[in-house]
Amino acid sequence: MIRERSKDHFASLPSARQVSSSSATCSRNMLVRNAVRPRSLRSLASSSSPSSSWLLSSPSRPSTTPSSVPPSRGVSSTRPALADGPRPTNTISSDEIAHFSRLSAHWWDPTGEFGLLHRMNPARIEFLKGELLRVEELGGPRWLEGKDVLDVGCGGGIFAESLARLGANTLAIDASGSNVTTAQAHAALDPSLRVVNSPFPSPTSSASSAPPRSNTLEYRHTAAEKLVEEGKTFDVVCAMEVIEHVEDPRGFLECLMQLTKPGGHLLLSTISRTPLARLLTITLAEDVLRLVTPGTHTYHKYLKPSELRDFFVTEKHWTEFETRGCPYDPIAGKWRLLEVGQLGGAGELVNYFAGVRRPLE
């Protein structure tokens, strides 16, 4: 479901995985994790092979010795010679895909493997609405009416179904075919969802015959890079609990940027690279409490809010960037979306959301 470095972290490191519910889960040995150091975006991309993908790593990973520890990564530092050669055509990790495919049957069990993601969904919606309210007025229960929204790394469709119910024309994609099949099968059970291009019969004929732009929900087994090739763009692009599982974070973010319309919104949720995050999301959640499958997360793939800010604002010159912490309250059994800067930044030491807007052109 789904560490502290300065801007220089991205530019200087050498080359080199959703609690939030959002895109993730598990199987890595604790000795490996403890040996792994954080890595930067530059180092991550530079270690990726041209054929590597951006999304998902195997549930069982080989032991890591200090000599083979991957360097830390950050957002703004990926492939050292980014401008000199083509980037990978796909940022998905085949190991990660295999990991989540094995867990696909559990997506809609709110008390199971993805229970934390189900509980995080209200916070996702709250964050999305808050971002849109910064620039426009929203009214009625279907406040996403008429907007084209992309959910990247949709998993079993927890977030995508909510988007469709709020009125959005929703396209949800995932690199795992079994995840997409699970999402399509579940959506077909709800007659209020206008599901299109699905192999599962809908309870009503209106879904399959729905005309374009009529608040439809479509799932596709594909990668974001393919949508870029097709020239697709969206009012809102979301990647919830995904970036901590990709092989090339810079390439992944640049792909999402291309899919965002001018004036559109790009929203992420992920985990910060801090000792507290490692303690809560890996040591406790995976190794001790087994709330998620061990190996779901990889500490050195976590990104700090400051790293995303440097990438989007300083380097790419996108606007209205903000982050909001989202800690889990185990007593209440819910995630709490904090206000910007609440707790003096301490609220962003583990799970957090980030939103940014593409400038009008």
From TrEMBL:
UniProt cross-references to Pfam families, sorted A to Z: Methyltransf_23 (PF13489)
Compartment list: Mitochondrion inner membrane
Name of this chain's protein: Ubiquinone biosynthesis O-methyltransferase, mitochondrial
EC number(s) per entry: 2.1.1.64, 2.1.1.-, 2.1.1.114
Gene3D superfamilies from the UniProt entry: Vaccinia Virus protein VP39 (3.40.50.150)
Pathway, per record: Cofactor biosynthesis; ubiquinone biosynthesis
Origin superkingdom: Eukaryota
Organism listed in the record: Rhodotorula mucilaginosa
Main subcellular location of this protein, as a coarse class: mitochondrion
Region annotation (Disordered) ranges: 1-93
